[in-house]
Design a protein that fits this description.
six-stranded mixed sheet, four-stranded antiparallel sheet, 8 helices, binds adenosine-5'-diphosphate, binds magnesium ion
């Protein structure tokens, strides 16, 4: 069970409330996209789910556990960022296996898991290379591989494609969707790009100024935007 439930979550930094009374339910196995303009609170909301920030108010449940004040390590979550921060002195194989080894998984089992993830992402022929010998898209795939090998209950993505050029972005976008269709692991994906949101999300949460403007399937948002902001942002004719 890895549904995610946010109940009346708020987050204040000093005197500024950047997340305002957000309630969102993400179903087990769903690919949920958080979309909104820069500064709307997407990364903060993701960090709250990850446990990298604690809410000022409200509760966060993952599955049937209240994780509101649990540290990130206990949440069974993997995060993929835009800056892929691979270890330059380690091969792809070691980059992918590093987290498993840290978590105490023995060498042989870790190697097996790396092989499976590499196969899934088309990285098998690159396992002995170093990050500097990879293209941007390949590096991003290794960063995803590093998240996949741990088989977490939830994936969190924070604008993972924003360092890639346009063509590659479309390609890796497709790969992430394929990966999700195979694994069916609950995913929360942050982007400011409405095309990306509409093409990837099972469901979309539109944020503005730390508030949820609307939640729905791409079809619902397009056909019945809740207000002019959503209509304008999504590019709906309504
Ligand atoms: P987004 O990811 O949608 O661009 P963020 O969640 O990064 O938005 O930021 C939302 C708002 O919260 C911004 O105004 C940002 O300046 C502010 N903010 C984010 N993190 C902090 C922090 N650690 N301290 C103070 N303000 C912050
Ligand atoms: Mg952000």
């Amino acid at each position: 069970m890895s549904s995610i439930r946010l109940r009346n979550v708020s987050k204040r930094f000093n005197d500024t409330e950047v997340i305002r009374d957000v309630s969102v339910d993400i179903a087990d196995g769903e690919f949920c996209v958080l979309v909104g303009p820069s500064g709307s609170g997407k990364s903060t909301l993701l960090r709250l789910i990850a446990g990298l920030e604690a809410p000022t108010d409200g509760q966060i449940h993952i599955g049937d556990r209240d994780v509101t004040f649990e540290p990130p390590k206990q949440r069974d979550i993997a995060m993929v960022f835009q800056s892929y921060a691979l270890y330059p002195q380690m091969t792809v194989r070691d980059n992918m296996g590093f987290g498993l080894r840290l978590a105490g998984v023995d060498k042989k089992e870790a190697a097996g898991k790396v092989d499976v993830a590499a196969e899934m992402l088309g990285l098998t022929h690159l396992l002995d290379r170093y990050p500097r010998q990879l293209s941007g898209g390949q590096r991003q795939r290794v960063a995803m591989g590093r998240a996949i090998v741990r088989q977490p209950a939830v994936y969190l993505f924070d604008e993972p494609l924003s360092n890639l050029d346009a063509a590659l972005r479309v390609q890796v976008r497709g790969e992430i969707v394929d990966m999700h269709q195979r694994l069916r692991t609950t995913a929360v994906y942050v982007t400011h790009d409405q095309v990306e949101a509409m093409s990837m999300g099972d469901r979309i949460v539109v944020l503005r100024d730390g508030r949820v403007e609307q939640t729905g399937t791409p079809h619902e948002l397009y056909q019945r935007p809740a207000n002019r902001f959503v209509a304008g942002f999504i590019g709906s004719p309504a």
